[in-house]
Structures are given as C-alpha cells and as structure tokens.
Amino acid sequence: MAVGELFAAALIQVLLERLVSRELLNFAHREGLRRKLEKLKNTLSIIQAVVDDAEEKQHTDKAVKKWLDDLIDLAYDAEDLLDEFTTEALRRKIMGENRADSSKVQNLIPACVTGLNPSALSSNVRLGSKIKEITARFNDIAKQKCDLNLRENVGGRSNRIRGTLPPTSLVNEAEVYGREKEKASILELLLSEKYIDAAVSVLPIHGMTGVGKTTLAQLLYNDHKLKSFFDLKAWACVSKDFDAVRVTKTILNSLIFEKCDDSDLNSLQVELKAKLNGKKFLVILDDVWFENYHDWTILRAPFEAGAPGSRIVVTTRNQGVSSMMGTIPAFHLQVLSDDVCLSIFTQHALGERDFSAHPNLADIGVDIVKRCKGLPLVAKTLGGLLRTKMGRDEWEDVLNSKVWDISPEKSGIVPALMLSYHHLPSYLKRCFAYCSIFPKDYEFEEKQLILLWMAEGLIQPQEKEKQMEELDGEYFRNLLSLSFFQQSSNDKSRFLMHDLINDLAQWVARDICFRMEDRIEGCKPSKRARHSSYLGSEYDGTKKFEIFSELTCLRTFLPLMQPMHCYLTYFVPLKLLPKLRCLRVLSFRGYCITELPDSIGDLKHLRYLDLSYTSIKSMPESTTTLCNLQTLRLDSCYDLKKFPSKFGNLVNLRHLNIEGTLMPPQIGKLTCLRTLSNLVVRKDSWSRIKELGPLVHLRGTICISRLENIIEPRVARDANLIGKPNLSGLLLEWSSNFDESQDRTTDFEVLNLMRPHKVLKELTISGYYGTKFPTSLNGPSLPNMVFLRIEMCKNCCSLPPLGQLPSLKVLFISRMARIKNVGLEFDGEGYLQPFRSLETLCFEGMQDWENWIPCEEFPRLQELSIRWCPKLLGKLPNHLPLLEKAVIKGCGQLIISLSSFPELCELEIDESKGVVCRSKVDFSSLNLENLSTISKFTCQIEGLDMQGLTRAENLTIENCKELTPLWSNDVGLLQYLPYLRVLKISDCPRLVSLVAEEVGEELQLGLPSKLREIQIRHCHLLKSLPKTMMCDNNFLTSILIHCCDSLMHFATDQLPQTLKELKIVKCKNLLILLQEDDINNSNSGTSFLECLEIHDCPSLRSLTSSGELPATLKHLRISFCQKLESMAKRFHLDCSLEYFSISHCESLKSLPMGLHSLSHLDKMEIWICPALIVFPDEDLLPVNLRVLQIFGCKNLRVLPNCIHDLTSLQELDIRRCPGIVSFPEEGFPTNLTSLEICDLNINDALFEWGLHRLTSLKTLSIRGGCQHVVSFPEMMLPASLTSLNIERFPNLKYMSSKGFRMLTSLEELYVSACENLMSFPEDGLPLSLLKLRIQKCPPLKEHCKKDQGRDWLKIAHIPCIYLDNKFIFETGEES
C-alpha cells in the first residue's frame, strides 16, 4: 500500500469531478475560461490512466516515487485554483444580490454587470494566467510518463498486500494469557438456555485488529464443555475475499469423512443441510468482512436445519458485520493489561513468563510492552523479533523503531492493519489519513472531526444526495465500527485512536500532515505539508512558529488544547497569518487574543474559524468576505461586543456557535445554517427572534433564552419552530431574576406559539412564568419526545399530562415551587398506558410537594430519584419491575417500602447506600443526619431490620444535636457494624465520648475491630477517644480531629500501633499530643506513624512527654502553634523523615538535635519563627536535602556555613531574615536550579561571589537589598536562566544589553518597584521570552505602551505582557 493510492489517485479523481461540475462550467463559460479548463481536464485524464502503474513502481523506482510526490503537490495546487474559481463566482453572486437589494438567491449574475466591473476583469486575467501555469505543470508531469515507462490502465495491482496464513482451529493454550474472564462469559452465553428457542443463534466477537478475536474463538472451539454440549463442530476462515462456495465446502469437509470437491453452491448447501439436520452444532466463522445481507442469508440457509441451541460464532473487526449477522448481543473484546501483554511478550521473546532469568532486559522489555497498548498480536510480533536476541542494543533498537519499520515477512501486525486500511473505500481513506494530525492519546469529539473533514473538502456530496453533515456522520460511524476509532473510557462523548492506528494514519499521510511535536530537532517539515497541528502551551512565543514561515500552502492551522487562559505571540495573527493564504481551517481557540487583523479577509479559502474562549472584542468587517466559511465557533467569547455589519454575507455558513456571546446581525440571511447554538432575546431587540423563521435547515439543539423580553407574542410564531423538522433538541429559558411584579400573562401565549415540530426528541423548559402549560406538551403533539426537563416554573400549580408522551424515556421535574399534588392529571387521566417508555424519573427541589398518587406501574423505569422534597408524604410506586437504582434524599416524611424495589436494586437514602436482596436491604455505607438514634433511620424504611446494617463499611453522622455517645446501654449503634471501616462524625455538640462511661468492658471488646479511618469535626465536648478502639485495633491507619475544643491530649501511654496518619486542626485547648514518658517504652508500644500534621492549636506546648518522635515519621508539618517551644529533643538516627515544615510558631527557640542525620529529608520549610536563632548540630544540614525555605525568621543570625556542601540542594529560598549579615565563605551549591532571596543584607557579597557559577540555575528572584544598583545585570548571569524576577531596586535606571544577550533561554521576566527604570536594553529582549510583567515602574510602563511607547517594538513579540496587572492587549489606558 502506498501513499500514492491515498493522494494521487484520489486527488486526481476529485479534480476531474470538480472540473465537470455545473457551477464551475457555467462560471468558466461566462468568463471565457472554459476552453482552458477543458485542456486541464484532458491532461488530467492522461495522467490518471498511469497512476495505478506508478503506485506499483514507486516501491522500486525512486524517480517514480518523486513523480508521484510532485503530482500530489501539483494536485493540491490545482485544487486551490478551482477553489478560487468557485470563490470568485460566489463573491460576484453576493455583490449582485447586494446591488439589487434582493433577498432572492440567484444562480447567475448578468454578463453585462460583470463585464463592466474592472475588478471582475482583473480577476479573469489572474485566473486565466493561473490555469495556464497549472496546465503547463501538468503537461510536464504527463510528458515524464514515457521516460518513466508508465503504462496506461494496467488493471489490478500485482504488488498486493502480503497476507498471512489463515488461522486454523488449533491453539496452544499454554501461550494464551489474560482471556479467562472473556472465555467464561462467552461459554456462559453459548451454553445458556436463554437463546435455546432459535434454531441457530449467531454470536459476534468484535474488536480491533490484533486484539485476539481469533485466539479467543480457538479457545472456545477446543473447550471440553462445548465438545459434550454440541453434536457437531466446524471451523472456517472467511477472510476479506468472501467466497460462499469455499466457506460452505470448508464447513462441509470438516463434517464428513470423504473430501468433497464439488464447486456447485446449491449441491454443497443441500448436502450441508442434510448433515446438520436435527443436530445441535457449533460453527466458527473467523475473520468475516462482507456486509452484504443478501449474501449472508444465502450462506446461512443450511444452518437453519440445525436443532435448537445451535450456535454460530463470528469474529470480525467490523461492527457493521456484527449488527447484520448477530442474533445475540455482540461481545466487544477489549485490549489486555500491560501485565498480561508482558507475559505474552516474554513467552515469545525468551520462552519464559517473566524476566527472572534475564533481569538485565526487564526495564527495556517493560517499555516495549507499553508500546503495545494492550494488543496481544503486537506483543507476539515484537517478542518474535527478539527471539534468541539477548543484547540490550538489539532490544533498544526495537524499542526505538516503529512497527512500520518491521518487514511484513516478519510481522503479523503490519499486514493485518494494512488490510483494514486497504478495505476502506477511497473517500474514507482520505478522511482517515487526515486524522494523523491528532497526536497519540488525543481525545476528539465526533462533531469536531466532522466539521474539519467538511472544511478540508474531504466530502463532496453529489446533487440530490444527503447533506454533508449526514454523510460525514456515516463516515465517522464507519471508521468507528471498523475500530479505527475507539470510544474514550473517560468520556463517552469523545474518541481516540489506538497508537498503532495513529501510526498507520501517519504512515499513509506521510509529509502531507505535520505535527509539531513529532518534529525532530533541527529538521524542517516538508514544504509539501498541507495540514498541521500542535499542542498549545500556556505561552506560545515567536520561536515556536518560525518553521511555519515557509509552509505557505498550509491548509490547516490547528492548536489542540482544552479551553484555558493561554497566550499567543502577536506575530502569528499579524505577521504569519497573511502568508498562509490557502488556509481552510484556522483556530485560535483558548488564546487571549483581543483582536483579529483586517488581513483575515484575505483567507478566501477559509471554511472553519474557531475563536472560542478567546478575549476577542470585535470582528473586523473584512470577515464578511469569507464567503466560503462553513463553521464559525465563538463559544464563550464574553468580550465580543461588535460584529461586522454585513454578517449576512457569510452565505455558506452552516454551523454557528455563539454560546456566551451576543447574537450577530442579519442571522435571517444565513439560510444555509444547520446548527445555531443559542439565541438570546435582548430587551432592545426582542423582535429579532423572528429571524429564526427562514432558517428551515436548522438541526441539532438550539437554546432560546431571555424569553421574558418578548413584548408581542406573535413574533414567537414568526420564529417558525414548527417548520424546522430537523431540530432534535430545544431549550426554552426565561430568566430567574425577572421582576415578578410585572404582568406575565403573555408567557403562556409565547410558549404556545413556540410549538416545535412533532419530530423533536429533547425539550427543556426553564423559568417559565405562566400558571399553566399549553396543550403542545401532550402526547399527540410530541410523539417522538425522549427527554424532557421542566424546571423553575414557579407559578405553575400543576404538571402537564406527561404520561401521554409515548416515547418519553427521561423526565426531570425540578424546583416547581407551587406544585403540591401530583396525580392522575400528570399520568394523563384516562390514558391506558402512562409512561410506558419511561426509564429515568427525577423530582428535585419540590419544597411544597405533599401528595403523589402514582400510576399503578412504571413498566420500564430503571432509575428513580427524589431529592429535597421535605413535605412529601405517603409511599413510592409499588410496581417497578425493572428498577436498577433509587435515590431518596431530603424527604424525611416519605415512607420507603422495601417491597417496592426489585432484587439487586441499588438503594441510596440520604447518602446511605445499599442493595436490595430478598426483600431486604444490605447497606454498605450509612449516613445519619439530624438523627439521635438509629431507630429514626429504620422507621423511615418499611421492612428494614438491624440485620441490614451489619455489612456497612462506612458510617457518617452529621448534625445529631442530641447524640452523646455512640455506644451505650440504651443506644447500641455500632455493635451492629462489625465490618465498619470508616467512621465520620461532625457537628454533634453534645458528643462527649464515643463510648459511655457505664458501658461494660465486654461491650467495649465488641466494638468494630476493623476500623481503618476516623474523622471527627466540630464536636466541642469530645474529650478523648476510647482506649480500646485506639490500642486494640489492628487496622486503624488514619485519624483526623478538627475543632474539638475540649480535647487536651490525643492519647496516653502510646499511639495506636497501626496508625500511619494523624491530623489535628483547631483544637484550641490541646496541650500535648502524647502524654507518656517514652512512647517507645516497650516493643508493644512501638509507633509506626508516618504522617503528623498539627495546625492552629494555640495552647500546644509540646508533642510528647519523652521528647522523641517516632522513627517511622516521613511527613511532619506544624503551623500556628504559638506556645510551642520545642518539637522534640532530637530526631532518631534512623528517622525516615522526608518532609519537614514548621511555620508561625512564635515561641519556638530551637529545632531538634540530629537534624543533620536525616538522610531521607528532601524538603525543609521554616516560616515565621522569630525566636529561632541558630540551627542545631553546629549548623550542619542533611546532605540529601533538595529544597530549603527559610522565611521571616528575623533573629536567625547566620546561614549554615556548610551549605555549599549540599550537592543535592536544588531550590534555595531565603526571605526576610534581616539578622543574616554574612555570606557563606564558600558560597552556595553550584547545582542550584532555583534561588530566591528577599530583603537580605548579603546581596553585594553574592554578586561579588558570582551568580554565573550557578550553571544549572533556571529561576532567579532578587527582591530588595540592592540599594546601590544602577544597571542590571552588571554581573554575568547563568545562560541557563528561564525565569528572572527583580524587585525593589530603587536606583536602577538601565538594563544591560550585554547581560541580557547571554540569556537565550529566558522565558519569564518580572520587574517590579523599580521606579527609576527607564527602558529595556537597546538590543531588545530575548526572542525566547514568553511572559513579561512590569509592576510599579511608571517610566518603563509609559515606554512600553502598545503601538506608542518607544520600547514597544522591543517587547511586541512576547505573548503575555502585563503592565500593572493589566493585559497589554486589553483596550484601555495602555492602548
């Protein structure tokens, strides 16, 4: 398979089709250009005849390969020219309409009009010249065919894709890993009596190439259970080239003793039918491709003679095959885990299940397997390549190579993937190749990709065919069903490509598609590149886009990023954009650009423009000359206030998203619109809603909001919603903050006149002010409605008869303030089968709802939710046979009967979660709110007994004002919870203890013994935790105590041995953590605490009586403990501490001894400890320390003199320590990557020592302490710097050109409070700079004003510039 097939043949065919289009020929004839186009068409026909032969020869002949590349490049140029023709024809058509001031669409403009137009004459000359040039280039291409010995119409290709041997039914089960669950699931289906009634059932196994469908079928075929269950078995590999005779003969020969050589399909089928008659059989049809239903019915005919329970298993990579053939729901086979793939890989590479015999190859092997992304065929292929190869170099070669570099003779995956690609029709090949602009693991939306395909002209519907959007939807679904796309596991609305499929797309697109991230350093993309994408960054500067300057034929400029606050260099829209005159797709999505240049109007080919989430304030008038524009996305452009006055000239616009933006003018002229996201009815232009009237092609979903602004209801009828049969979704919204005193009697008429077409599927009505609903919401008016939401209609006293909607599946009723009764009128009084299709029903926020008389049955309801309906009385519906989940929250008076729920229904009551089992419920978590005893909880649930609580693992108790203990002789709550894992208690003001004093020891011993986590908040009378729970529990690992004012100590004698995490916050009377002389006084008392945090405990004086901390401690953080004088006497020699932070402890005088011995310590923070004077251990620090921060220790006298020996130290931050007056004799560690100094008296010594010695430094911040500096930097700074911050240099006047010239990697510069600084260096700032902030520097700010200041050109290339906290490109004072 060659790139030539993708582009050359397909592009030539597209050009020929366009050259004979009626519109182009009419325009060419009118302008005297038709003869020139005829010559071009004839030349293209000559070339087309030899393209097939060229595709064959390019593999062995470099000259032919170059000829094809030149042809592709020229074909793109020709397509650009034909686009210019259609654009010019459309432009003149629009001009003629504007002159005539007519609303009619005219196909032609009279020749007398165009003939007298100097612009038209000039355009004709230019187009004629370009046709002549393009034709001459094609003639040169055509002449070369003889020199290259290219033959015409050579027929079928000889160099077809090399296929692999067809798989048989045999399998080595010892080499199959990870499919046990899948095999068991399918066996259950095959042996099930569920499908026993049918004579033969068909089970498809569907999955992408290489995922192991055939292997799974082999496992099933050879399973001993199936051998005894079926009378007959047969296996046939169908493959791509379907041959009914061959498949039938294969199956027949596996069932008879004598081989059958008959080639007559009829006689074969008759014999096969006789053999299968009355027998229960299993037939495997492996690797099925064909989708012809007629062929399938013929092939299937003999199988219908089998006995009930017979099965056919089909493996296919095409979901369309699954849908056509399957009678049992298809089994979709997923990828394997990396661990399983590792076993497959090592089996084939080493003949072992792991790397135990070859540990030196384990790390490379793991990385190779990660590249397999769960495909067993890839793991097998790569493992087979390394069979008998034991050198690391050989393994690294495979790791760094691409699958496409592997010879097909040695690979099973390459031919398999190429076969999938080869099977695609040509139009899908082009669409698939375009997807190579997406990086690996990038998740895209279906609509996003469809709009891009449309913009690139990858779909050209013929006359009277489907709309482009419909065809593109089919294209997308076809690629999805063939597993070229996969649904995201994170978001079902998004899709992605498996890495190997992505590689395949790159391979077939070659240098036509260019991804910036894949560019090898120093290599330029091909000038032939037409489509480009890149991953946007927070700051995208000039250097990033230098490579685009030569890509003048580029059609796609697509940053891929999630909506975010990103900054783009002004160079791109102002300088680069005018060079890219062939663009079809342009996106600035997510960038903080505030304006577009007028040159945007020169992009005549542009069809897709995305300005979503930008800060754009107006669109230039030139935008309206983009007459080819199909898609305009302005989502969340909240600052956009001005549109072009002739917006209606965008006559080809099909998709307009203005969510969060004002409504543009002249929308009624955009009669090609297919999607319009929303329309906001403004007070000053409420009548413009009638502009929706002519937009009869609208489809998808539209939101019409601020409907309260409509003064005359008749304009609602002019919107003509009933005349829009393609609309599937409608949102009608009234504002919630409207003046209620105004008369709202017109709202009923507005809603009634906005009646949608009966095909509508989804409807939301929000904030409606009427007192009743119109009849448009009953069944006959909306027979196709599947989703309905009615919310915040606070004047309505009753609901419409929604039970009459025959197709309704999802219903939400929310915040209907005046609804008190829901009864027969809701079901549709007298309606025989109300809610017959309903699957989800949700009531929410119905504050005054009191009575519900539900219908007898909700036959299809799967999910029921009733939230925050505090006055609702009575019971739930009785008959809910299919209910899977019920959520009841904030409905204290509602009686919940367990008999209403079917088996295995998930039940959630006020966040207590359980599952119904045998008319009872087993709760896995309990949430008790506003309750004093368990009995109040059980009384609300009819049929609940204490046994249903025993398996609860989580218990949350909130706002139980009367609760004193959890365990007592009267209130025995927790003895019912032997499996309790997590206990959370909050806002129980009378809770003194978890266990009452009178409780006997025998009850204490029965407390939950598997408790792992305790959280107690705002229990101000709590004095302690039970000793039994603390010390006799082998599972307790985490405790949090917050705002428990009566707690004076946490524990006595010892900490719980299993406790790993302890956090105590805002316990104002806590004096000591552990009251014991020695926490390690015995082996049984050893603590394994790893994390200790204490915050805002103002009475705390010490942590332990013994003065020592657990040796296992890894994380220690203490803050706002004003009376704490000492943390501990010393650290253990073998202490595991990794992070140590102490802050705002004003009485702390010293740190524990042994600080220097903390070999694991990575980060140390000491903030605002003014009583601290010196470091312990003669100023020695841990040798492996990586981060050191000292802040606000005003009495600290010196820095540790050994600081230069800390070779692991990377980040040093010393601020506001005025007592430090001497610089370390040997300076700072030279491997620092970040240095921040603030208000120190050592700056002069630091500068003299030499900052250039810090050769790894990336971040440097100097604030204050530089009173005498006039020019900066006078000293040499490290060339490695990426961020520089200078602040409070009162006498600084100049920036040194010499100093900045070396900073070629500098990306961020922050200058603040340098009141005398006048300008930046004469040479300007580094081109690498991405972010510049100037604060409190009046002269410099004046000189940096946009387009005015004398320093503006020095900084204009920087994407992000802020002057006194204001973005420089925002209009205002700076402009």
UniProtKB/TrEMBL annotation:
Gene3D superfamilies: 1.20.5.4130, Helical domain of apoptotic protease-activating factors, P-loop containing nucleotide triphosphate hydrolases, Ribonuclease Inhibitor, Winged helix-like DNA-binding domain superfamily/Winged helix DNA-binding domain. Residues 180-350 form the NB-ARC domain. Residues 689-816 form the R13L1/DRL21-like LRR repeat region domain. One of its GO terms (molecular function) is ADP binding. Residues 437-505 form the Disease resistance protein winged helix domain. Residues 30-57 form a coiled coil. Pfam families: LRR_R13L1-DRL21, NB-ARC, Rx_N, WHD_DRP. One of its GO terms (biological process) is defense response. Keywords: ATP-binding, Coiled coil, Leucine-rich repeat, Nucleotide-binding, Plant defense, Repeat. Residues 12-100 form the Disease resistance N-terminal domain. It comes from the Eukaryota. This is Putative disease resistance RPP13-like protein 1.
